């Protein structure tokens, strides 16, 4: 099963995240199929940059966002 999830990048206390499509059981820093956006919680507006077209295409193919990502996108 494919999941759309957050992959942490950056320093320990300055994390930023990539929004990626990966296998459900894969490691956080493991192999990804596609990178579709970024999320930076340290900016004033918690800015999310997401490629909506890729996100929609992966959902049509059966990939499901994680609960955390689902809350952030709303």
CATH domain class name: Alpha Beta
Strand content: 35-45%
First-to-last CA distance: 23 Å
Rounded mean pLDDT is 91
- What low-confidence regions span 5 or more consecutive residues with pLDDT below 50? none
What's the CATH H-level homologous superfamily? Ribosomal protein S16
Major beta-sheet overview: 5 strands, mixed
Helix content range of the residues, please?
10-25%
Number of β-strand runs: 5
Radius of gyration: 12 Å
- Count of separate DSSP helical elements: 2
Total domain count? 1
The backbone outline, from C-alpha atoms, is globular
Q: Strand sequence of the main sheet, in spatial order? A: 4-3-2-1-5
CATH topology-level fold name: S16 Ribosomal Protein, Chain: A
Order of helices and strands: EEEEHEH
Structural class of the secondary elements? alpha+beta
CATH architecture: 2-Layer Sandwich
GO molecular function, one term: structural constituent of ribosome
GO biological process, one term: translation
Protein name: Small ribosomal subunit protein bS16
Pfam family, one: Ribosomal_S16
